[in-house]
Structures are given as structure tokens and as C-alpha cells.
Amino acid sequence: ASMYTELERERPDGGNILTHPDYIDGNPDLIKPKKLLNPVKASKSHQELHRELLMNHRRGLSMDSKPELQRVLEHRRRNQLIRQKKEEEEAKKLQSPFEKELLKRHQRLDQLEKEQEKQEDHEPEFIKVKENLRRTSTVIGDEKAA
């Protein structure tokens, strides 16, 4: 405030640093501008939220506290995750060494089957047809002999 008064004293014309708008002079021909409304502040939900925050502040409630429903839902989610982890750990513990070995063998067999399928896919078409012809000819020959 003291700097402002010093600047007023220094200016010989007596005018302020800030210019005054024309509509303050009281000219009736000019249209006076209206302040635009902020659509966020004008919304009902924002007003209700602001009112609730003021009430909580007056009551002394901390702003960090969450609504009861949100706290309950988070608590349930946390408990559910803990239960799932416990069940997974128990399932791993209950597997006997025999079951683990069976699982390993099953995985090896699956891997071998996949490798055989890949090898069969790389063989030329005429070799596959020739093998099929041999099988059918031996089956037909066995039926005639019997």
C-alpha cells in the first residue's frame, strides 16, 4: 500500500496506474458488460459438493476421510485379494511330490507332441499320401487273405 501511495505522489497528473473503464463514468448510452458465469461453479453438483465440504470443515472432519460406502468397498476388495492369495498358497502346498512329477511328465509329453506335429507339417504332401496308400493297401490285403 505504501508503494502505491508513493507512486500517486510522484505523478503530477494525479492519475492512477490502472485505467478506469468507460462504463464507470455513468454514460447511459454505453452497455455495461456483465460478468460471465463459470459453468462449473453454476452446476448443482459443484454447489452441493462445495456445501458439503464447507459443512465438513465446520464440523472438523478431515478431508482425507472417504465416504463410508467407498471405505467398505475397498475393505471388501482387500479381503477378497487376501483370501485368493491364501487359497493359491494352500493349493500349492497340498500338491504332493507325486502330483508335481505327474505334472512335469504331462508337460513334457505335450511338448513332444507339439514337436512331432511341427515335423509332420514340414513333410512334403506326396510323402503323406504315399504313407496313406501303403496303409490302405495293407488293410485291403489283410482282409482278402482272411
Automatic annotation (TrEMBL):
GO terms for cellular component: focal adhesion; neuron projection; nucleus; plasma membrane; stress fiber; synapse. Pfam families: DUF1151. Residues 1-13 have a biased composition (Basic and acidic residues). The keyword Lipoprotein does not apply. GO terms for biological process: actin filament bundle assembly; actin filament polymerization; regulation of actin cytoskeleton organization. One of its GO terms (molecular function) is actin binding. Residues 1-22, 105-130 are annotated as: Disordered. It is found in: Cell junction, Focal adhesion; Cell membrane; Cell projection; Cytoplasm, Cytoskeleton, Stress fiber. Keywords: Actin-binding, Cell cycle, Cell junction, Cell membrane, Cell projection, Coiled coil, Cytoplasm, Cytoskeleton, Growth regulation, Membrane, Nucleus, Stress response, Synapse. PANTHER family: ACTIN-ASSOCIATED PROTEIN FAM107A, DOWN REGULATED IN RENAL CARCINOMA 1/TU3A. Stress-inducible actin-binding protein that plays a role in synaptic and cognitive functions by modulating actin filamentous (F-actin) dynamics. Mediates polymerization of globular actin to F-actin. Also binds to, stabilizes and bundles F-actin. Involved in synaptic function by regulating neurite outgrowth in an actin-dependent manner and for the acquisition of hippocampus-dependent cognitive function, such as learning and long-term memory. This is Actin-associated protein FAM107A. It comes from Dryobates pubescens (Downy woodpecker).
